[in-house]
Every structure is written in structure tokens, then in C-alpha cells.
Amino acid sequence: MTFTLIAGDAFKLDTGNTAWMMTSAVIVLMMTVPALAFFYGGMVRSKSVLNMLMMNFIAAGTVGFIWILYGYSESFGSATTGINQFFANPFQYFGLINLTDDKGLGAAVGVPALVGVAFQSTFAVITVALITGAIADRIKFSSWIAFTIIWATAVYFPLAHMVWGGGFLSPSGPVASWLSAPIDFAGGTVVHIDAGAAGLALVLLLGKRKGWPGGPFRPHNLPYVMLGAALLWVGWFGFNAGSEGAADGTAARAWINTFVATAVAMLTWLLTEKVRDGRATSLGAASGVVAGLVAITPAAAAVDSFGAIAIGGIAGVVCALAIGLKFRYGFDDALDVVGVHLVGGITGTVLIGFFATHHQGAWYPTGAKDGLLYGGGITQLLAQIVVAAFAVVFSFVLTYVIGYIIKQVGGLRLSEEAEVGGIDLAVHGETAYESIGATRLNTEVKA
Amino acid sequence: MTFTLIAGDAFKLDTGNTAWMMTSAVIVLMMTVPALAFFYGGMVRSKSVLNMLMMNFIAAGTVGFIWILYGYSESFGSATTGINQFFANPFQYFGLINLTDDKGLGAAVGVPALVGVAFQSTFAVITVALITGAIADRIKFSSWIAFTIIWATAVYFPLAHMVWGGGFLSPSGPVASWLSAPIDFAGGTVVHIDAGAAGLALVLLLGKRKGWPGGPFRPHNLPYVMLGAALLWVGWFGFNAGSEGAADGTAARAWINTFVATAVAMLTWLLTEKVRDGRATSLGAASGVVAGLVAITPAAAAVDSFGAIAIGGIAGVVCALAIGLKFRYGFDDALDVVGVHLVGGITGTVLIGFFATHHQGAWYPTGAKDGLLYGGGITQLLAQIVVAAFAVVFSFVLTYVIGYIIKQVGGLRLSEEAEVGGIDLAVHGETAYESIGATRLNTEVKA
Amino acid sequence: MTFTLIAGDAFKLDTGNTAWMMTSAVIVLMMTVPALAFFYGGMVRSKSVLNMLMMNFIAAGTVGFIWILYGYSESFGSATTGINQFFANPFQYFGLINLTDDKGLGAAVGVPALVGVAFQSTFAVITVALITGAIADRIKFSSWIAFTIIWATAVYFPLAHMVWGGGFLSPSGPVASWLSAPIDFAGGTVVHIDAGAAGLALVLLLGKRKGWPGGPFRPHNLPYVMLGAALLWVGWFGFNAGSEGAADGTAARAWINTFVATAVAMLTWLLTEKVRDGRATSLGAASGVVAGLVAITPAAAAVDSFGAIAIGGIAGVVCALAIGLKFRYGFDDALDVVGVHLVGGITGTVLIGFFATHHQGAWYPTGAKDGLLYGGGITQLLAQIVVAAFAVVFSFVLTYVIGYIIKQVGGLRLSEEAEVGGIDLAVHGETAYESIGATRLNTEVKA
Amino acid sequence: MKLVTGVIQPHRLDDVKSALEAAGVRGMTVSEASGYGRQRGHTEVYRGAEYTVDLVPKVRIEALVDDADAPAVTDALVKAAQTGKIGDGKVWITPVDDVIRVRTGERGPGAL
Amino acid sequence: MKLVTGVIQPHRLDDVKSALEAAGVRGMTVSEASGYGRQRGHTEVYRGAEYTVDLVPKVRIEALVDDADAPAVTDALVKAAQTGKIGDGKVWITPVDDVIRVRTGERGPGAL
Amino acid sequence: MKLVTGVIQPHRLDDVKSALEAAGVRGMTVSEASGYGRQRGHTEVYRGAEYTVDLVPKVRIEALVDDADAPAVTDALVKAAQTGKIGDGKVWITPVDDVIRVRTGERGPGAL
Ligand SMILES: Nc1ncnc2c1ncn2[C@@H]1O[C@H](COP(=O)(O)OP(=O)(O)O)[C@@H](O)[C@H]1O
Ligand SMILES: Nc1ncnc2c1ncn2[C@@H]1O[C@H](COP(=O)(O)OP(=O)(O)O)[C@@H](O)[C@H]1O
Ligand SMILES: Nc1ncnc2c1ncn2[C@@H]1O[C@H](COP(=O)(O)OP(=O)(O)O)[C@@H](O)[C@H]1O
User: Fold this and answer.
1) Which InterPro entries does the annotation name (chains D, E, F) (predicted)?
2) Which residues on neighbouring strands pair with residue D50, listed in sequence order?
3) pLDDT tens digits for range B93-144
4) How many CA atoms lie within 13 A of A44 on its CB side?
5) Cα distance between residue A19 and residue C140, in whole Å
6) C429: which chain E residues are within 8 Å (Cβ-Cβ)?
7) Which residue from E78, F64, E63, E75 is spatially nearest to D94, judged by alpha carbons?
8) CB of D6 closer than 8 Å to CB of D77
9) Beta carbons of C400 and C201 less than 8 angstroms apart
């Protein structure tokens, strides 16, 4: 993305860019609550839908809070050498103090610094929230709360710094000088590979849900899943076109690619289902939408229409097949965070190496090259593979360590009784839907 | 709309207009998924809600895909004479290649060409999606997929070209020189009359649902219908105020008119129900909202507040009465696409002839005239009637032919068994909501 | 808010500000339909969800209508002396006639006058809609319709004029000269205290629901509540950051504060529940979100990050405790409009007196002072208390009188039979969800 | 008195109701049920995982009738519910010791 | 043993439950049902099309009781459910051959 | 003939179904129910107001069987449903006068 730190600009407000970035920030927040919450919430059984919604709300709460306190500073603080190749100083802009507009992410395009904070806050929130899909139905609520804070601090903020904050994997980092400037327009590595690998690590620590596989885990409300998928698509334009940081032709290219890659991914996912299972399903349509969105994210403005169509089309097939991995290898990635976000994120990140271009309104950072199929040779592909691999390993290892420590300290897994009897009731003392026989006895609230 | 092709402008980016147009594009996409999908999905029975949602998602998928490939080019390519009065060259901007900003729809107001493509893509999608309401509960899924592609290519893209792309019905076409420049600010003809007449044609080809009329076809989830209607209202500001193509006073006039016409239409629909049936219903409120939105669409910026109130108020009554037509004439327009979109679209298009004005911030294209009640005589009214009539005939006849061919080739209608037993299960192998007794036996996904 | 009347500016369009304000207007409308409607609709029993949705739609319909007719004029007409300290001339801009851009709310920042009308219309709508939560499940539908019109005219429009229209409580009014310019950035008094006090007055007139307390009044669909809360959060950025009237750094400050105060309020509400009830609930998360949003509203751009965190954190605890008041004092504020909006509105308005600042991108009107904890002494706190107290009394007394008159004239309360048997059926002739046994006998619609 | 219980195809409910009325039944109680029998269930596929749903939606009808009316009511029920396809359901008759009308406390045949 | 079945107004469930407890009933099974009888249903109107819904929501209660307790339990049920309005429902008593407590396999009155 | 009715824990349904099949039962009818008994319900808290929900979700299974098969079927049902925890439910057996297969009109044991 061009929405990035450029030191020393005198700030001149551009109301149009500012309007677009505030709008984008709003609709990216919508991607977590309610979109992702409902996408996942509809997929779980009715006895744990509230817990799923809650985990997403919690991600917005805790990560939102620490982002303003020190997360922005840790991600986008100015130091980028030595250890600060990996994370910036969390106290430089503690509570956003001293963050003047000329030091902001949008200084070069007239966007106030706090708008940059706002936009990026929603990325931190959704990355953490994505993980909930893998661990659905069995994690202790308090452990989830702790995890969100620790993981954002130790994994997300650093990776954001490395890729977007001028650090290790950025267009000015070592991979760029060695091979080519890596391209991650809107978060294929920082968001999707990151969350996907983390989901996998947690799943291995948590173990399978009782009764999986073989038990009845069908989605309790498919319209909720469709609602979530649709709102994810809608909000994703803020995610991808917003990542340009300005309202211009490059943002428009990201818009178009986000639209068409998703449309095609939905169609190829459905086609894959039709061929394999004999039916095209609504869950498949919703899943195809998300797979397409994930895969086009890193490439959003870095390919032309044909590149977007190819990436979307390939991602639809690849992810539709990848959701079978968990059955083959026996890890209970409940709602397919690995199959969709990890695999989709890798797919998009790597395919950039084939399709990157700077024609037809497409854009990539200085130091990047055209893809293999667009005459730029193999260098960009290698850079993309290196970055993807680094992100997988970085996120998986750190997450495993964090999860392991939490497991030792407070435990990760809910009691079997709570899991079987219904998390909503056991953990939150609630049930999602009305039923016969509720009697209120005690109405005095201790105030 | 002023958002239209103006040749030869040197392009100078306006970030504010660009921000508004990208935002509008986003919320118009939201009108199809999830808004329209839920508006219709709540109205069908629970055994076919997924099929309804799917048909809307499919419209976004297939039409989105071909729009980027050749639809934009066919609609807004530069040729407008001879046969190109009716459609432009689909290959001029194939895959959006060579579409530079100075050739875009927003060149005159500093909006990048791809933003114009984005905005218009969402119109193509929703027009096709609107038809699903008429044919609910009984069309073959594969036939629907084929229909979306053929219909968009043969009906929607041409009509968009005729009205907005400088073609036959545009302010520079023959009707304009003969009578007066026709006014269709945001799509009364291209979108609503078009979809409504197409819905009628398909209904005649498909026949009635088993048990209609007389059977139990009540909406399975009215809150979904309300959710859909509310989100349609929200997104429609992008549709109408976005059709200005810029963030200016004319867009604001469209905003205000969209707001007040809808508010009043809801009230008059409810009043009609109260008088006729003795009750004001929530389905009536949702329907009134949509009727008002449909009717104000062509007139959005071309009337003042009083004109908007009148158009909304009349549409609320007229559409509330028009939904009785299907019972009288025995055509099973399942969710009232004819009663609301065809009748509402005609109502709005024709009423412009009475209320058009260019005062109070209202606007219409050069060559148009004030309406009958605003001292402009009868010319504009005649032009509006001609355009509406042309659109009805054009869409109905072509759709009938397309539907007839599909019927002969692959069949249109689902088996009675699938219809009675539930389309969701028969076609998609899914049921929308959890129920007792699902057992997973086979969990191995063939990958 | 800076979005306010400034006489005599020559108008120069700023497309960026205009884009932001139109977008804000759209998402604030979304806060009423569907957000608030679903937030409340999920909380009532399934037999009255449609009535709740309807009351919110009606608020959009009637208030939207009269706002365009005379409400804007009554609120933001130019006269501000004598009796016009309390309300402006409703006929000055009747139907928005003669409202030229240089006379609009956004004249100073290049926003067309009609955009100001649009933005403010959505505030009028939601303020009225908020009241529905207090009176859920028992008000006559016709009385509600009448109430919306009378209350908006006699309470909301005047208060908007007093606070934002240059009247009695505005930065140029008597409180400002006496103490300090009161700060209400986005509507703590005009919207939340106003609606909260009105809700209380109506509750006293209506009496308790049959069976309250002690009966089974649990929410019928908690995911709907979560959906509503999430969309309220999303839309509230339009409410608060939009209240700046422009896309600039102050708007960004409001964005950030709205984000972090809400995040923290959700966490502190959940903590309060955990301590008091032993469980953190999803209804608590949703409620905490709304409490935080309410409390930060008046302070949105007038505090720094730490102020926002403090206000959110305090509001989460205070409101979580305040919902017990209704049980203690025995008034059936069904969905806690008093506990959340009145108490939260007062909390936010008063806390400004402690936390107001004009550093770190924060802003307040000329004549206001820094808060007690930021070295400005006690003056601002006193001004805030005076304004809050005035708003409580003004709204409560007038609402009581209006409600009393409606009660005498047409009655306020539904029959017990309708209340027990289900309002949806009794009043609207509908049920929200499908059930067995519906047979259509008569399908002829009288047209 | 007897209790006639029928488990039938949901789409026959309306006709059965009419038939029972015609047979002089003055009241009945209806509830939702799922059946398992010769009629095959179906499979559903979610992200490639196949679920077998072997319960088929049914409607249960219960009518309390006088001993003398039981055969006629049963016949009416069976006839109205019959489509001839597998899955049409079962009807069974069980003895009832006593019936009370809650509203009045009446007992026996008069309470029907 | 006997099975006492009651089809009652949903809003009486709570009182009936308490009354049965007071009458010494240690367990019961409750389910949702719809009734058809003297109580009129209602009409709903959707876009002008009128639907007649002649089934009224009811709740069904079943309690297995010892032969000796049946009359008292029945009386308690009837009394607690009674509002005196049409639609109060029916209660009926049927003979039961045997009862088994699943947990322990106990049979007969001791299994209640 | 006999009607064997079981009210069991929902998560035992699958095993019970298999057990009945194994015991030669060719059909059964299943419905949702809520139970009240020794098994405690739970409390839910909404905005500080506490609700006591004393009904526990159960599933009801009904199988019509030949007199001779009743004991074996009952045993199979009980065994498959048993977890040994409070709330496992009840099974009871009631006499049936006659059974009719709706599809064919067959009566008696042949209709099962
Ligand atoms: N032995 C039985 N006990 C209880 N219900 C039964 C029994 N056999 C069948 N049923 C019910 O009857 C329905 C139809 O039975 P099925 O065997 O599918 O068709 P048919 O009766 O036409 O041969 C089943 O779905 C079930 O609800
Ligand atoms: N013959 C019957 N068999 C089974 N259930 C019945 C019968 N008659 C009435 N019921 C049940 O009792 C309910 C109340 O009956 P209804 O005739 O409306 O009122 P009432 O019993 O007060 O005269 C009905 O809704 C139905 O559920
Ligand atoms: N007397 C009864 N009549 C009808 N159903 C009963 C009766 N007693 C128990 N039940 C049903 O059996 C279920 C389990 O009973 P419970 O007393 O909780 O456990 P257990 O049978 O293991 O002692 C209850 O939830 C209820 O559905």
C-alpha cells in the first residue's frame, strides 16, 4: 500500500482522501462486528453462537484498547533499524500523544495522522478476530481475552511493523535488497497468513472438539453465514481500496480487483463443489466469496483485471479443496481458518509473483517487479515466497509458544461438560434464542 | 445523472468526488448482498430461503464477472451511432484494458475511470438480482445462472447504453430531439422497469408455484424482510445521490429526495393497508420503503422537496394497490416485482413529467423541460411516457425470447418434487436452520 | 460540533467534506434502521418484535417527513433572539425552499446546505427512535405515530435549536456568557439525555407491562441484539466524527475517541457483570458498546485518548449499575433507555467538565474551557451540569405533558389482551416467524 | 373414550383437519414431529462433509373421541392423509380413562 | 400407573408446574403444541393476502403418576390451568403398563 | 400392540436410534420436548435480572411395537439411552388398540 510512513512532509489536508480513509476505517470495523461475527456465528451450533459473537466483540474491545495505548506506536513508530526492524517503540506515541499530522501514515496525501491510526486499528482487530474461527466451541473465555492482548502485542504489531512500518519485510528491508521489494498491498501476510498460521497453532494446542470428526457440526443458521459473507465483501472494499490511503486511480484498481476476483472465486468454488459433491451450496458461495477476498488482498492493486480474475479463480478452487486437509490430517480447524485464510493468503501472496504488473492502473512499490507471466522474470515470485514462508513460520512458532504458556498458566480448554452442554449457557449464562419455560424469579439487580 | 461520458477531458483527480463515488459503489453492492437477498429471503418459505440468497449471490458473481470482461464496454463504449445507438462495442475495453481516466464516466469531475466502472457494476448486478423476486421458489438453478449472463448481455447492457451511454434514449438521442430530453436520473427505466418487465415475462414462462394462489406462502422471517428493506434504504443513497457522479449540491438534492419520498411512501402504503385491510403491517412498511425508493429513483435530483413528497406519496398508494394485480390476473409474481418495481418504476418515470424542475437545487439534463405542474407544459410528460413504454416493451419481449429459448434448451422449471419438498435441500443439499437428527457419517472431503 | 450556522459565507464547494458528510448521513440513518430496530427488536419477546421494528421505521417515516417540511427550519432557522432562543421559525425554509448553500450548516467548510439538512435529519429520527426501548410492548400504535410528530416538534427541534442552532444553550447563549460555553459535540444532551428523560416520562404514564417484574421478559434473539449493537457502533462514527461537519483532524479525533471509549466501555461493563453476576454476557457486551457510544458522544472531539478511555471506562460501570434502578424504583423501562441513554448521556456530558482539552487534536468551541483534571478549573464542569440538568427537566416535563394529553385524548396503552396475546398479531395482524398451520383462504386483494 | 393419534405428512395437515371436522371431531391437538421409517432421509453437504439426516418432518395429530366415533374418525383421518407414497405415516388408537375440559371441569364424553 | 396429559394455555405453564409439584409430582415432560377447537384462530394479512391461522399455541404437559395419585394430580392440573375462557384445554388420563427410569433401570411406581 | 415412549437426553438420540433398529424396530417418531425432574435446570442472567429455567431439553421417541417385542425394545431403548447421570429420562409402555398404516390402510401388527 502507498499508505505508509514518509518522513518529513509538511502536512496539507486533503479532505477527499480523508473522507475516503475515514469511511474505509468504518467499513473495515464492520468486517469484524458484525460481519465476521455472523459469518462464524452462523456456522457454529446454536448452543455456542453467543460465545462466537462474544469472542469477536472482545477482539474489537481489547485490541482496540491496546492499539490506541501502544499498538499503533509499536507498529508504526519511526525507528526501523536494529531490533526496530522487527517492532517499533511502543511508548513513542503512547495514547497517541505527540502524533502530529506530519508524522502520520497519510502525511504525504493530506490525511490526518489520527485517520491513519483509525484505519490501521481495524486491521489489528480483524486479524485477531479471524482466529476465532479455528478455535470455535472450546476455548476458555478468559484465556481468549488474555490471548488477544498477548498475541496482538507479540505477533501482530511486530509483523505490521515489519511489512508496512518500514521494517524487515518492507520494500526498504533486506528481502527487497536481496531479491525484490515484496508486495503485500492490503495484508495477505500481515492479516491472513498471520491469522491462519496462528489458528493452526492454537488448534494443535486445543485439540479436537468432542465428537469431531463424525459428529453433527452443521451450521445452525446459514442465512447468518450469508449475511456475514456479504458484509465482509462490502467492508473489504475499505480494506483493499482503503489500503491505498487515498481516493485515487490506484484505489479504484483495488476496488475493481476486489470485486471481480471475489465474483470469480465464488463461481469456481461452486463449480468445484458441483463437480466433487454434486451440489453447489450456499455455504460454498459464502466461502468462495471469502476465499476470493483473502487471495486478492495482497494483490489488490498490483494486478490488472485478468490477474485478478486468475487469482480469484484459482483461490476458489484451491481453498475449496484445502478445507479437506483438516479431515485428512485430523486437526479440528472448526470453521476453516487454515483452509481459507492461511491457504488463501499464501495463494494470493505467491500468485503475485506471476501476475504483478504496473499497467492498466495497477501499482506496486518501488523496487518490486512485474510477475513471471508479465515478463518480469522469477525474482518477484521468489520474494513473495520468502515473505509468505517467513510469515507462516513467524506466526506459527510465536503463537504456539504463547498458546503453550497460557495453557500452562490458566488452561486453554473449556470443560467437557461446558462444551457438550453448551458454551453459551456454561460461560455466559445465556441462550441465544427464546425457548419455553424461562421463569424470572429474582429481579433485583445489585446496584 | 451527470455521471456520464464527456469526451476529451484532460483528467484532473478530485479526491472528494472519488471518495464519494467509491463509497457509493460499496453501498450499492450492499443493496444486492445482503440487502435484497434478505428482503426477498425473508419473504419466501424457510425451505427455499437459501436458494433465494444464492440466486442473489450468483447475480453478483456472474454479472460482476462479465461486467469487467465486456459489460462495461458494451454499455459505455464510445460509439453511439447506427447500431451503436443500441449497444457499444463489447471489446473496446475488454477486461478494462485501455480505459484511461480521461475516457471514464467521471472524467469531467475528476473521478478515475475505474471508479465509474465500479459504480456502474453494482447497478448491473442489482438489476439482474431484482428479477429473483418474481421467480422465487421454482426456477432451475443452472437456468438461472445462464439467464443472468444472457439477460445482462442482451437486455441490461444495451438499455444502459441507450439511456446513459449516449444511445437511443439518452438526452442526445431521437426522443430528445423529437420531444424533450428524457429524464432518468438513477435508473427508473434501466433498472426498475427493466427488471419488472423481465420478471413478468419469466413468470409467464415459468407458471405458478404449486398451490398458488390459496396455499400457505407467508413470509418465513419478517425481521429479515425488515433488515433487507432498511439496508436497501441505506444503500439507495449511493444509488441515487451517487448517480450524480460527484459530491455536490445536486447529489445532496438526490439524497434529500430519496429520504423524504421513501418516508412518505412508507406512510401512505401503511395508510392504504389500514383503510383496506384494517391493519398496518410490517411487511407493508418494508414494501412501502422499497416502493418509495423505486419511484423516486428516476426523479431523484429532478424534483424539489414537494415533488419528492408527492411522488413518494403516490407511489406508496399505487404500489400497495398494484400488488393485487397478480391475484386478479392470475400470474404468480411471487414477491411482487411487478407490483413494486415495474409499477413503481413507471410511476416515478411518468410523474417526472408533472414535477420536474430545476429550482431548489434540482437538476435535469440540457434539453429536458419543467413538468406539467411546474409550468413546462406537456412535452416532458410525453417524453417520459415514450421512454417508459419503450423500456417495458424492450425488456418484456427480449426477456420472453431469452426465457423461451432457455426453456426449450435446458428447461426452466424445477421438478414438482423439489418444489414441494424444498428447493434448498433438493438443489443445494442444505437446510437453512438447524434441526434435530443430523448425523454426520462421511467426513472425508475428496481433495 | 463545528458543523453549525455561520452567517454570510460565500459558498465554495469542498467535495471531500461533502463526501464525508453525505456518507455520515447515510450511516447515521443506518443506526435507526436497521441497527436500533434490531438492537431493541432482539431484546423483546418474539410476539412483539415486529411492533418494535415498526415503531423504529415509523420514527424514520414521520420525523423524516416533518423534518423536510418544517423541522429543519424550526431547528436551524436563522433567528436566535427572544423567543427564537428556544426555537426558530418553522416556515423560513418550509420544504427547504430558499435554503441556499451560503445559508447552510456547512457553508464555512464548503458543504452544500442540503447535506446539512440530510445529516441532521438522521439525528432527529434516531432521537425519537431511541424512546421506543423504554415503552416496548405496550403502547398503542396510533398513539406512537402521533407522539413522534408532536414530540419532535415540541421537544427535539427546539432543543436542537437551543444547543446547535445558536439558541439558549449554545456557545453563544446565556450559559456561555454566565459560566463557559457548554460542550456537546455530537448530542449528549440533544439526543441522549433528551430521549432518556422522555422515555422515563412515558414509562411513568404507561405503567408496567403485565407481569413485570418477575415475569419472563428475556430477549428472544440475542444475535439480533449483537447485530444491532455492532451496526450502531459502525454508524456512530458518522454520528460523532460526522458532527465535525468536515473531513479533518478534529473528525479523526472524534473517530478515535468513539472507537476507544466504546472498546473500553464494553470491557468495563463485562467486568462489572463478572464481578456482580459471576458471568460476562453477550447482552452485556452489546450494552457496554452502546453505553460507551452514548457517553463519548458529547465529548467526542473534546477529549484526548486518555479522556476517552476514562469516559468509556466509567460509563461502562455506571450504566451497568444504573440498569438496576428500574427494579429498585419500580418503573418498567423495558429495554433500559434510562439506564443507558439518560444515565450515559449525563455521565458523558458531566465528565467533559473533568476531561475537556484542546490538545492532541482535540477541539471545543470558543468560550469553552479545559476540564478540571486538565487545569481549567471548575467552570466547564458547572456549565456541563447546568446544561445536562436543563435538558433533563426540559425533556421530562414537556414529554410528560405531551404524553398526558395523548393519554386523555386517544389513550396510550394497548389492551391487556393484545399485550398478552402478542402485539404483532393484535396490532399488525402478523407474526414474525413461520409456524405450522397457516392456511391462506382469501387471496383476492381489493385493489 | 379413545385417543386417535396420527403421524402424517405435513402437507396433508389441512385436508386432514377438514376431514376430521367433517367427521364431527370438535377439537384436536397438533404438534411437530420427525419420523423414521421406510421413507429415506436425505444427505446434506457442508464444506464437503456429508451429513445424513434420516429423520423426516412429520406432523402429529391427536383427537380424543367417543368410543363409538373412533372407527369413523380413524377412517376419515387415514383417508385424508393418504397419498399412497412411502412415508404417509401411521395412525393408532389408544384407550383413555377419562377426559376433562379444563375450562369447566366437565368430565367424560361431554368434555370432548 | 397412569399418564396424565394436559393441553393447556402456554401462559398457565408456570402455575401448573407449581401446582403439580405441590401435588407431589416429581417430574413431568413438557412440549409445544397447537390446538384446534372452539377457540377461534386468527387471520394474518401479508400484502393484502389473508391467511387464516386456525391453530392456537398450546403447551402439552405429561406426568406419569401412580394409580392412586391420578385423581389428585388431575385435579391440581385442571385447577391451575383454569382461567374460565374458551381454549383452556383438555386433560386426559391413559393407562400405562410400565415405567422405567433410564438412569437405573428401575421399573414400576418406583421409577416415577 | 404397545406404544413404547422414551424421553431421553438429546445427545443419546443417535445411539438409541441404532439400538432400536438393531432390535428390529422398523419405524419410530421423534419430537422435541423439555423435561422437569430431579435434574436441575439452570439460571440465565440478562442485564442483571436472573431467570430460572427449570426445563431441560429432551427428545421424545415413540415406537409402536408388537406385544411380544415390547420388552426387548424397551430394554434396548433403556440401555442405549443410559449414561447413569441424573436426567437420563423415562421410558413407559402403553397399550394400543389398533394401528393403521396410512399409505395402505393395513391394520394391526402388519401395519408396523
Ligand atoms: N413403529 C413405529 N412407531 C412409531 N412411528 C412409526 C412407526 N413406523 C413408522 N412410524 C411413523 O410413520 C412415518 C412413516 O413411516 P414409513 O415407514 O416411512 O412409511 P409407511 O408408513 O408409508 O410405510 C415415520 O416417519 C414415522 O413417523
Ligand atoms: N377432541 C380433542 N382432542 C384433542 N385435543 C382437543 C380436543 N378438543 C380440544 N382439544 C385441545 O384443547 C384445546 C382447547 O379446546 P377448545 O375447544 O378451544 O376450548 P375448550 O376446551 O375451553 O372448550 C384445543 O386447542 C386443543 O388443543
Ligand atoms: N413423572 C414423570 N412424568 C413424565 N415425565 C417425567 C416424569 N419424571 C421424569 N420425567 C422426565 O424424565 C426426565 C428425567 O427425569 P429426572 O428426574 O430429571 O432424572 P432421572 O429420571 O434420571 O431421575 C425429565 O426431564 C422428564 O422429562
Assistant:
1) N-reg_PII, N-reg_PII-like_a/b, N-reg_PII/ATP_PRibTrfase_C, N-reg_PII_CS, N-reg_PII_urydylation_site
2) B442, D45
3) 999 999 999 999 999 999 999 999 999 999 999 999 999 999 999 999 999 9
4) 30
5) 43
6) 42-45
7) F64
8) yes
9) yes
What is the spatial distance between Cα E102 and Cα F74, in angstroms, rounded to a whole number?
Answer: 10
Q: Is C248 helix (H, G, I), strand (E, B) or coil?
A: coil
8 Å CB contact between A439 and F54 = yes
Distance CA F4, CA E100 (A): 11
Q: What is the pLDDT of residues C345-402, one digit of tens each?
A: 999 999 999 999 999 999 999 999 999 999 999 999 999 999 999 999 999 999 999 9
Percent helix, strand and coil across chain C, each rounded to 5?
A: 65, 0, 30
In chain C, the N- to C-terminal Cα span, in Å, equals 50
Return the half-sphere exposure (C-beta side, CA atoms, 13 A cut-off) of residue A301.
29
CA–CA separation, A272 and C284 (whole Å): 42
The upper half-sphere exposure of residue C289, i.e. CA atoms within 13 Å in the direction of its Cβ, equals: 32
Tell me the pLDDT band of B370, cut-offs 50, 70 and 90: very high
CB contact under 8 A, A30 and C231: yes
> 457454529: which residue's cell?
A44
Its ipTM equals 0.96
Calculate the alpha carbon distances from A358 to A365, B321, C322 in Å: 10, 56, 58
3-class secondary-structure state, position D42? strand
- Residue D112: pLDDT band (50, 70, 90) is confident
- Rounded Cα distance between C222 and C216, Å, is 15
Say how many CA atoms lie within 13 Å of C152 toward its Cβ. 34
Q: Name the residue with cell 492482548.
A: A149
Tell whether the model's pLDDT for residue A101 goes beyond 70. Answer: yes
For ligand 2, the distance from its centroid to the CA atom of residue C135, given in whole angstroms, is 35
- Rounded to a whole number of angstroms, the CA Rg of chain F reads 17
**What amino acid occupies position B349?**
T
Task: Provide Rg for chain D, Cα atoms.
Answer: 17
SS3 for B438? strand
Give contacts of C431 with chain E, Cβ < 8 Å: 44, 53
Residue B99 phi, psi (nearest 5): -90, 85
CA of A70 to the centre of ligand 2 (A): 67
Kindly give the interhelix angle for C249-277 and C282-296, rounded to the nearest 10 degrees.
140
DSSP letter for each residue of B176-229: HHHT-----SS-IIIIIIHHHHHHHHHHHHH-PPTTTTTS----SBHHHHHHHH
- Could you say which DSSP state residue A117 is in? H
Cβ-proximal residues to B82 (8 Å cutoff; 6+ apart), any chain: none
Average pLDDT, chain A: 95
> Given ligand 3 and candidates E3, E29, E64, E104, which is best to mutate, with the most ligand atoms within 8 Å of its CB?
E29
d(CA B120, CA B97) in angstroms, rounded, equals 17
Task: Provide, as residue numbers in chain C, all residues whose Cβ is less than 8 Å from the Cβ of D32.
Answer: 436
Residue D50, SS3? strand
Which letter does DSSP use for residue E22 in this model? H
- Three-state secondary-structure class, residue F64: strand
Q: For residue B147, give the C-alpha cell.
A: 439467464
CA distance C338 to E5: 45
Q: What share of chain E is helix, strand, coil (3-state, %, to 5)?
A: 30, 45, 30
What is the β-pairing status of strands B438-442 and D28-36? unpaired
Per-residue pLDDT band for D43 (boundaries 50, 70, 90) equals confident
The Cα–Cα gap between B253 and A103 comes to 38
Instruction: Give the fold, CATH level 3, of F2-111.
Output: Alpha-Beta Plaits (3.30.70)
How many Cβ atoms are within 10 Å of E41's Cβ, its own excluded?
A: 18
Helices (H), chain D: 13-22, 70-81
What 3-state DSSP class applies to E44? strand
Cβ-defined contact of B429 to D11 (cutoff 8 Å): no
Percent of chain C surpassing pLDDT 70: 95
